[in-house]
Write a structure and sequence with these properties.
Two copies of one chain form a homodimer. By secondary structure, chain A is of the alpha/beta class. Chain A contains 14 helices and twelve strands. The longest helix of chain A is centred in the last third of the chain and has 24 residues. The first copy, chain A, starts with a helix and ends with a helix. The interface between A and B is large, with 89 and 89 residues. Chains A, B: Keywords: Aminotransferase, Pyridoxal phosphate, Transferase.
Chain lengths: 367, 367
């Protein structure tokens, strides 16, 4: 009876979750993780100034948040030297990707991404009836030429590129990304996911041109700013595309506390520098742990390190299962040959100690 | 160029906002309101225990919230004596209404509501290409027989009823609402919005039958629990319909801080009782202020009072404009004959003092 009420499209969708969260796993396991290194959360935390701002805002939470996200958009616009009309704030990049898919993808419309790239993009595209076309990673990086070539071939509405990418942590230089934007077919929009950009070397992000209607880029407060649980992402794009979000978004969807936290976090450049240094140290440490176990890591421009377990997907899966069994939450890529790797978030020393302790056992059991 | 990338449906939509928020008005006016009585926010605030829980959760906000909202759903299930499988938590009722429209409304599908009822429902229905059919209020209340009659006539996918209703604050007894559910045509889902139910007399909400697939009801932490800015609403329905939300929702969309706040608020029954008493007093006070100006108020089962300004919509609009000009944020119904009224939130004494001071001037100017 219920299904008779669903649209044919929605009735056809699986009740899927792009990711199983660590709390779900903890409930299934019956005990907590000792190291939470699987979701690329920022264990170094948000700025104390951001925590204080959220605590102060809690008393005012009887008021709805500002539906225009005015103050945060103004601060982001100043930060990126664009106009507030080029900024859309939303409930994480996940929420904004859902809006974008709804705005651009009608049933049957083509979207191009990389096999093994962000599952939540795929979830939203399928959710609106889009046809996903995937090209493989090349040398553990997203493949610009293949993405553009396929976009032209299938007449894609969207072509998705994460830079730095998830789940491998690799990246392309700004010039390469700009070349993708410059080569994009008429009618195709480049979806440039820069969730990890604050961890990347200078010269990774192409210059922001707020008049360029060929690209929309996504940034987040979930990673470098340590506010994953506050759900604040934003898009930067040409004003007409940004304005189109107002046609469909949940205008009063942002938490007032999260708005305050993001505003304070953005202003605290010193804490960001601190986090970047901590993450760089943690990446080095993960590399040392891997090397101590005879494993190679991929270069990373993110707050995680992808460890090549040196064999096939079944082996890496066994290593991961061993880690999870011993209370270390990590994840791994979903498709071959990326799935020979496991992905470890660059977390605090104590959690990496647990990982260092458990990795040899997991490898021994898997082997 | 951008519009070429939008779907035909989205391109056809206006960039509309169901409500203009008070912050937007304050920016346009160039000065703040002295009394914030327009959005039916709860000026008595959330429970101190909920504020404390949110402040404590702020330090943990580097973690994503639990995608299953497990703890909150479990607590709500216990509260309502249903299973967690009957509860879906989302980003306010607004967010959940958007999900429901997406799940059930294909282009051209009919939805029935009352003219002048919640604009955000209409926004979401139109946003998915639905065809809205409106029946008038009858004696300042939503009209059950007309709603059901029209639903049968047009083969509606959804029929929306708010009880108590917004914007008039009136209500039907549980038996009347149950009769609507019992009379709903095959294939139509009753969308029962009970956002204000905690302010209504006992006997307003029909018994929750978690097996009944003919109705989905919506509740919120934004009103009686004082957490509007935290964005926590929930749906109660039969398990198959609840499960269908997992096909399309933003799984990690809930703020971790909001989850903690809602959980604490639900547990604090004493604060809810306190708020209910404060709101009842404030309603009485608004009635006295109105009477002192020769105006009649409608009976209210909500945290606002609808004042009949006694003439036509243009007059009520002039009264409202006068109040806004003198820094009192209030709103009014959007269609005749409801628009002979203004709607005033049951706020704290100091804000009602400002309202009491400004209403006579606004009436004099309007007259």
């Amino acid at each position: 009876m219920t299904h008779a009420r669903l649209t044919p499209l929605v009735a056809s969708l699986p009740a899927s979750v792009p990711f199983v969260g660590p709390e779900t796993q903890e409930r299934d396991r019956g005990r907590p993780f000792r190291a939470r290194l699987g979701a690329n959360e920022n264990g170094f935390g948000p700025a104390p100034s951001a925590i204080a701002a959220m605590q102060a805002a809690a008393a005012d939470v009887w008021k709805y948040g500002d539906a225009q996200n005015h103050d945060l958009r103004a601060a982001l616009a100043a930060h990126h030297r664009v106009s507030p009309d080029n900024i859309m704030v939303g409930e994480g990049i996940d929420g904004l990707l859902g809006y974008l898919a709804r705005m651009t993808v009608a049933p049957g419309d083509a979207v191009v991404t990389s096999a093994g790239a962000y599952p939540t993009l795929n979830y939203h595209v399928r959710g609106f009836g889009g046809a996903l076309h995937m090209v493989p990673f090349h040398d553990d990086r997203e493949d610009p030429e293949a993405l553009i070539g396929r976009a032209a071939q299938v007449g894609a509405k969207l072509v998705y590129l994460s830079n730095p990418d998830n789940p491998m942590g690799t990246w392309h230089e700004a010039a390469t990304v700009q070349a993708i934007i410059d080569a994009v077919p008429e009618g195709t929009l480049v979806v440039l996911d820069e969730a990890y950009i604050e961890f990347a070397p200078d010269g990774t992000a192409p210059r922001i041109d707020p008049t360029d209607e060929r690209v929309i880029r996504f940034r987040t407060f979930s990673k470098a700013y340590g506010l994953a649980g506050a759900r604040v992402g934003y898009a930067i794009a040409a004003a007409p595309l940004i304005k189109a979000f107002d046609k469909i978004r949940n205008h009063f969807g942002m938490s007032r506390i999260s708005q305050a936290g993001a505003l304070a976090a953005l202003a605290d450049a010193a804490w960001l520098t601190h986090v970047q240094a901590q993450v760089a140290q943690a990446r080095t440490r993960i590399g040392e742990i891997a090397a101590g176990n005879g494993l190679r890591v991929l270069p990373s421009a993110t707050n995680f390190v992808t460890i090549d377990c040196g064999r096939d997907g079944a082996f890496a899966r066994a290593v991961l299962d061993g880690l999870v069994r011993h209370d270390v939450f990590v994840r791994m890529p979903g498709v071959a040959p990326l799935d020979r790797c496991i992905r470890v978030s660059a977390g605090p020393e104590a959690e990496l100690d647990v990982f260092a302790q458990e990795l040899p056992k997991a490898l021994a059991t898997a082997g």
